[in-house]
Hints:
The protein is of the alpha/beta class. It has four helices and 38 strands.
Amino acid sequence: MKLGEIAGFVGGRIVGNPDIDITGVxxxxxxxxxxxxxxxxxxxxxxxxxxxxxxxxxxxxxEGVTASILIVDNPRLAFAKILDIFxxxxxxxxxxxxxxxxxxGSNFGDDISIHPFAYIHNNVSIGSxxxxxxxxxIGSNVSIGDDSIIYPNVTxxxxxxxxxxxxxxxxxxxxxxxxxxxxxxxxxxxxxxxGGVIIEDNVEIGANVTIDRATTGSTxxxxxxxxxxxxxxxxxxxxxxxxxxxxxxxxxxxxxTGDGVVLGGQAGxxxxxxxxxxxxxxxxxxxxxxxxxGQVFSGSPAIPHKTWLRSQSxxxxxxxxxxxxxxxxxxxxxxxxxxxx
Length: 341
C-alpha cells in the first residue's frame, strides 16, 4: 500500500513522501526498506534516527529522521490497525469437517469452520463465522456467539454461554468445577457445582486459563475484558467490563470487580473481596480486603501504592538503619560504663 493510503485508513497525516510503497510492518531493529515501524516511546528516538524503515508511526514530528513520519493521535492503536491490514488472513470458512463429532440437537450459523476431531455435544449452538479448531471439547447446552474463535485443546464444559467475537486460546478450561467442599469429621465432602459460566462479547482469554463454574448461578466475565495466560478465576466470580487480568493472577471465589480494573501479574485476590471501578493492583500483590473505586494498591498485604513506595524506600535502608542503631547502642553502653566508673 502507499503510505498515503495507510494514513487515510488510520486517520493520520504525513511528514514526508505519501507515495512510498509500504510492503511490511516490523519493530525498529528489524525494519528494512519498504517497512513501516512504530515509535512507541521517546527513549527510542535515537534508534529511530538510524532505522532502515521507510516510514515511522509517531505522535509528533521527529527531528533528524530521514524516514517519512505518519503522525497519529494514538500510535499504538494505529500500529495495531496496520498490522491487521498486512497480516490478517482472509476469511475462508471451512464448513463442518466429517471428522468432527457432532451430537444431536445442535445448530450452527452461516460460514462456520469446525475442524477435524472437534467434539461437540448435544444441544450446542454456534454462531455465524465462528471457528472451532481441532481437539476442542464443547459440552452440552453450550452457546457460542458469532465471530468467536476457539483454539485447539480448549475445553468448554456444559451450560457455558460465550458471546460474540470471543477469542479463547489453547489449553484453557471454561466451566470446570468450583473448589467447594464441606468438612465433617475430618473428611471433605464435595459441594455440587451446578451453575454455569457467562463470557460476554469481545472477551479474549489466554492460554491455559481456568474459569470455574458457579456453585449456583453463573461466573461472569464482562464485555471487553482481556485475560492473559495462566490465570485462575474461581466459582461465582464476577469480573466487570474492559478489565485487564495479567498472567498468573489467582482470583478467589465470589470476588466482584468493577469496570476497568487492572490486576498485575501474580496478584492474588482473597474470596468474597469487592474491587471498585478503575482500580489498579500491582504485580505480586495480595488483596485481602475490599478496595474502593479508583485506587492504586500494591504489596502483600496490599496497601495504597504511594504508601507502599514509601515503605519500600524505608525497607531498602533497613540494613543501614540497623547498623547505625547498633553503633548507637554501643556508644550509649560505653558512655554508661564510663559514668559508672
